[in-house]
Amino acid sequence: MELQVIQSKIYEIRGQQVMLDFDLAEMYGVETRVLKQSVRRNLKRFEGDDFMFELTRDELSRSQIVTLNKGRGSNIKYLPFAFTELGVSMISSVLNSDTAIETNRNIMRAFVAIRKYMIQASPLSLYRELEDIKERIKALEEVSDENEEKFDDIYVALTELAMKQKLSAKPHNPIGFIKPKE
Q1: Reported pTM
Q2: Are 136 and 168 in contact (CB under 8 A)?
Q3: For helices 98-120 and 21-28, what crossing angle results, to 10°?
Q4: Which of 102-111, 121-130, 141-150 has the highest mean pLDDT?
């Protein structure tokens, strides 16, 4: 499967890059219920939100991933599982076929490619690139008000990205039970 196709099925939910069970099932060539059944039989392998979590109805209705239809029986009956990179790698131990192994390799490559891109494309370098493009356009012709607004929108988006990266770089509290000191 092509890397770009896989990357298009990686979403950011709850601040994590995830793939949804129905996309994974399609890639692995199994039914969604079979994938979910295999995961449920091996829940110990997927404990913790850093491996997998179930979307809420609110997350599902707010997302552009799944479009809910009107009418009886046309909506999703069961909420999808969202698998992080760790969860996707764990699926290979649950689904043991040649197709699953090859698909899993390609998915891992897609996660790595996205991570490399995000590391290389820092907001500062994107700002510099944008300024360079803006200067080239100014040299060719005067920048219209409409184009100026588009550049402003891009600056706002880059600022939000930079803030998001700063927040994600902060140390997080450990998950789990902390034994009280005696």
Answers
A1: 0.56
A2: no
A3: 130
A4: 102-111
